[in-house]
Specification:
CATH topology of the largest domain: FAD/NAD(P)-binding domain
Structural class: alpha/beta
Number of strands: 16
Number of domains: 3
Helix content: 25-40%
Mean pLDDT: 94
Largest sheet: 5 strands, parallel
CATH class of the largest domain: Alpha Beta
Strand order of the largest sheet: 3-2-1-4-16
Radius of gyration: 23 Å
CATH architecture of the largest domain: 3-Layer(bba) Sandwich
Shape: globular
CATH superfamily of the largest domain: FAD/NAD(P)-binding domain
Low-confidence stretches: none
């Protein structure tokens, strides 16, 4: 279909929208919001790609997926072949198709968008990746994904089963090494299962991707916290030749305002973990999950995690879910799609306001938040206008639950138990940005434990580069 079209004809095709649940219906269920493309919709969207020679979208992808190559296959209806091509560089396509910020990466440099001088006209790469991964899962091909590799006799430990750890594990297993993932929690997937809600990333999607790694020979050990259950030195003593640390940034930040220790105050990490891993979203079946279902829930922050928390609150039965953000909508770091979905579902945005105190009753339970109105001043280090308090503008916003979603730092459990690993000012592991090597011989690190809070695909890119470096080290013995 697509190969018969001229560039002018391709450019004349508008982006194919993805059908979604009605906002009023989905705000009370946990099912995934978008329905996904049909084969016909996917082929039509794929036909918009110009298949340009310079392929800027590949440069924009942290794991260098052959984007024009897989899109060309989609346009021809060769969906399983497209999936096989994607998986050569991306072991989590169904995940990336759902949660990666394509609008800031591959789609940001799309030639079609540049031709229209309109970013919204970009080829919908993420939606096509999701379609391909879902099709391949639902229509498996016999022998698909089988990899016969010669064992090297080397053992590699991966600490953390989030996107960076899973990616490194897959690449290292494909190289013939014996790979074992150590996960502190009882389920594999890291932030993919405890942080991202079911309505954005269904758990069975993550489980399918993880099962694919197991079929490729990766061993997974859960309920083992490295730094507590055993140390990095213990792993070397057990015969591991190299270690990749991908533990993420799991230490929540708080605002350090009066009343933050009141009952009914959660970090977004705790709130989402209780909802995701303890099945609070299963309503009747999960009614015994220890999580408050307040009538009015206030979330501090403006990133994707804040959107996830505020939208989860609605699904847990809140009458009103409110985002308090100290800048304007234009400065919000959350994806445009996530902001749009939150607004559609009825999340109330209180912008240019900042919480200065949490109010509680005599028993210590939250009753409200004292907010102060803000004005935008000169840009700060982030390049965004600095929020400046307006004196005398304080007011109380009644609520019964508060969620703090203003960011995360590095959990110190592993690094405090491993002084040979150098850390930076904020506790993040210092690692070479190209190879992922740390200050401790035989140890690499990547993802949020190095970067701070970042994205799934950036963590995956770190995992891929670390795997390449580990392979070289195991081959040559040169550190």
């Amino acid at each position: 279909m697509a190969e018969k079209l001229t560039p002018r004809q391709r450019l004349a095709i508008p982006p194919v929208p993805m059908r979604e649940q009605d906002p009023l219906e989905r705000r009370r269920n946990i099912r995934e919001v978008p329905f996904g493309y049909s084969p016909e919709e996917a082929m039509l969207e794929a036909s918009r790609c110009l298949l340009c020679r310079n392929k800027p979208c590949i440069e924009g992808c942290p794991v260098a997926v052959d984007i024009p190559g897989f899109i060309d296959l989609v346009s021809q209806g060769l969906f399983n072949q497209a999936a096989e091509l994607i998986r050569k560089t991306n072991c989590l396509p169904a995940v990336c198709g759902r949660v990666c910020p394509q609008e800031e990466q591959c789609q940001a440099v799309c030639t079609v968008a540049k031709s229209h001088k309109d970013q919204a006209m970009s080829v919908q790469i993420g939606k096509l990746e999701r379609f391909v991964a879902d099709w391949d899962r639902e229509h498996p091909v016999d022998g698909d994904g089988d990899r016969a590799v010669k064992p090297t006799g080397r053992k590699v430990a991966i600490i953390g089963s989030g996107p960076g750890g899973l990616t490194a594990a897959g690449d290292l297993a494909d190289a013939g090494h014996e790979v074992t993932i150590f996960e502190a929690l009882h389920r594999t997937g890291g932030v993919l299962v405890y942080g991202i809600p079911e309505f954005r990333l269904p758990k069975d999607i993550v489980e399918f991707e993880v099962e694919g790694l197991v079929r490729r020979g990766v061993n997974i050990v859960t309920n083992v916290a490295i730094g507590k259950s055993k140390s990095v030195d213990d792993l070397f003593a057990e015969g591991f030749d190299a270690i990749f640390i991908a533990t993420g940034a799991g230490l929540p930040w708080f605002k350090n305002i009066p009343g933050e220790d009141s009952l009914g105050v959660y970090s977004a990490n705790e709130y989402l973990t209780r909802a995701n891993l303890m099945d609070a979203y299963r309503f009747g079946d999960g009614s015994d999950t220890p999580i408050m279902r307040g009538k009015t829930v206030v979330t501090f922050g403006g990133g994707n995690v804040a959107m996830d928390a505020a939208r989860t609150a609605l699904r847990l039965g809140a009458d009103e879910s409110i985002i308090v953000y100290r800048r304007s909508l234009a400065e919000m770091p959350a994806r445009i799609e996530e902001i749009h979905h939150a607004q559609e579902e009825g999340v109330r945005f209180e912008l240019l306001q900042d919480a200065v105190e949490i109010v509680a009753d005599e028993a210590g339970w939250v009753t409200g938040v004292t907010c102060q109105k803000m004005a935008l001043g000169e840009p700060d280090r982030s390049g965004r206008p600095r929020p400046v308090p307006i004196p005398g503008s304080e007011f109380v916003m009644p609520c019964s639950v508060v969620i703090c979603a203003i960011g995360n730092g590095a959990n110190p459990i592993l690094t405090e138990a491993t002084p040979a690993i150098e850390t930076g000012k904020w506790g993040n592991i210092v690692a070479d940005p190209v190879t992922g090597r740390t200050s401790m011989k035989g140890v690499w690190a990547g993802g949020d434990i190095v970067r701070g809070g970042a994205t799934v695909i950036l963590a995956m890119g770190d995992g891929r580069r670390a795997a390449e470096s580990i392979n070289e080290y195991l081959r040559t013995g040169v550190w």
